[in-house]
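Example record used in the benchmark description.
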Amino acid sequence: MTTREVPTYCRICEPLCGLIATVEDGKLIRLRADKEHPLSRGNACPKGIAFTEIQNDPDRVLYPLRRTPDGEFERVSWDEALRDIGARLGAIIDAHGRESLGWYFGNPSSFSYSHTLWLVGFQLAAGIRHMYSAGSQDINNRFVASQLLYGSMTSVPVPDLDRTDFLLMIGANPVVSHGSAVSVPRVREKLTAITKRGGRVVVVDPRRTETAQLFEHVGVRPDADAWLLAALLQVIFEEGLDDANALRRQASGIRELRDAVRRFTPEATAAVTGLEADRVRALARDLAGARSAAVYGRTGTCLGRHATLVAFLIDALALVTGNLDAPGGSVFGKELVAVSQLNARLGLIGYGKNRSRVGGFPDVLGTFPAAVMAKEITTPGPGQLRALFTSAGNPVSSVPNGRELSDAMRQLDLLVSIDLYVTETNRAADYILPATTFLERDDIPLPFTALSPTPYTQYTERVLEPAGEAREEWRIIDDIATRIGVQPFVIGPARAAGRVLSALRRRVPGGGSVRPTPRLIVDLALRTGPYGDRFGLRPGGISLKMLRRHPHGVVLADGITTGVLREIVQHRGGRVQAAPAEIIAELRDLTAPIVDPEYPLRVIGMRELKSHNSWMHNVEPLMRGDREHAARINPKDAAQSGISDGDRCRVTSRHGVIEVVARLTEDMTEGAVAIPHGWGHRGGWQRANAAGGANVNDLMSSDLADVEPLAGMSNLNGVPIRLDPLP
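Model output (structure tokens):
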């Protein structure tokens, strides 16, 4: 028996905690936290440790599957699957053009550099317009706000947790989620360290979350963030608490922003936020008066009706108080690969370069709102979506009104899924192609170094050989592209590496050529990037060879350097734009939501420690005990609805109905009901199906009027509902 202990890292969520894999005779026996990892230092959450169960899951798809006429699946060979997929794609392209092809990719793709690279390369080379992602249910509004503010979509400030004296956190629960749009292993320690050194952490959320229980909680009403943030700005401007020197150096449009928020006094916004005016004024004064302060918002701020405005106002608060690009404030990390600068020069992907055929929504980093995907399938005309691929995603569970999308997918001429499981989405697929897990591929977390208050990175070789006939996603994408005569990276990003690739070709014995691979491209990008070794010209710089010598990861700097805003901002003059026309118009037109007495409550989502979106309910260690899908309800709201703790209840919106267990808790503000997402399985995963529950997104709307216009965000928070007891 051969046993190996292999350092690697978790790719479920953004802390990227270090793991040690124990492998016996080629099989994963267990995962444990890596004590030698420089940041996580022996810490890992239950999901990361339990990934052994996914790796060895008997329900996992290990061979290509083809759907039979009776709706079941049969095993086929890779050659047979790819040959038929290629032939059907060719016929669709001949009849309708490449504009009829589409792709949806889910959250896990962000943790696979090779998947991301090859999908972008395929999109650019094939000219695919129908691109969709989990971003419109997650973070695209953050990117659009950065574009409006800084002229750079991928420049996202992160809270400087190690130096801040005051952290204002809105719609985030990092004690459970472990952080998002900020990469911080051991985040609980980072947060409690703020208060231990005499600082404050204030959590704004309709629920007294696990994070809020540790610190100060402000129980705002659902989807009222825009009114609260505008009120904080109004107080700061009105009382002269703004940092005039910082604003003169950094920004333009401050007068217009001040005028736009003038009407949002704490008194005028109290009916929307549910907060007393004195409390809002005190919060504004404390934020502006702190020696250093960071403002951070996450998923709870991203899924309301004014998502892009909210993301913009979060940064505007940091700007106006002098805490943008300042120690202890909201700071900009250095990218591992110079994506922002490269994209600024080449203009490969951006904002609003194209508009969706249905609804006319602007693209965000080359993708359109997933909420319109069903209508793009069912609406006739030029560019109608007829062939769809999905990878690492389950949109039927994650988009609003998944029933509509499930029905629409049955009208496609071709549906192909690259996945680990038979999910609610790919039950209707013509083919399911087996993907590797993150332990079966090499990886480097390209997007996350710039989001880490302590910049670091780690390269990992594959820990295991692919199980069964599973293949890495990039190789599957490459095979599909080849079938329609397309080579990723023949155009587009390859141009940036063209000279280096040409030099490499000249070195090949016999004058042969080098076909780019993800590993080759990422090594070139690392070596020429901000931390790179410049092919030996910068001693101590990084390359894949250097990172292989440090399998537990490498800390690249003690902290994030400030004073870099001029390098970040791509607007002419290098100044932050505080008053873009889109934001000023939305502030001008912002009106209080109408309360419908038929739907008096509002539903919000929530994260659970042992769940991650829709793909970890098949893991036995995570489903032990009293796991249940339950709505968290304030006792007063439950009493008015005639509901007791433990009852099953009916939750009704204008768009759908679900049934869940009621759990009464004072942690909910009155009028708010929290229901976890990702439940209600109907796929080929036995334990997940048996767990029951309901898909909370069945309550949500995919109507065009309910899609946030600036970033195409799905409206999944603050949706009006009512509760009814079940007999």
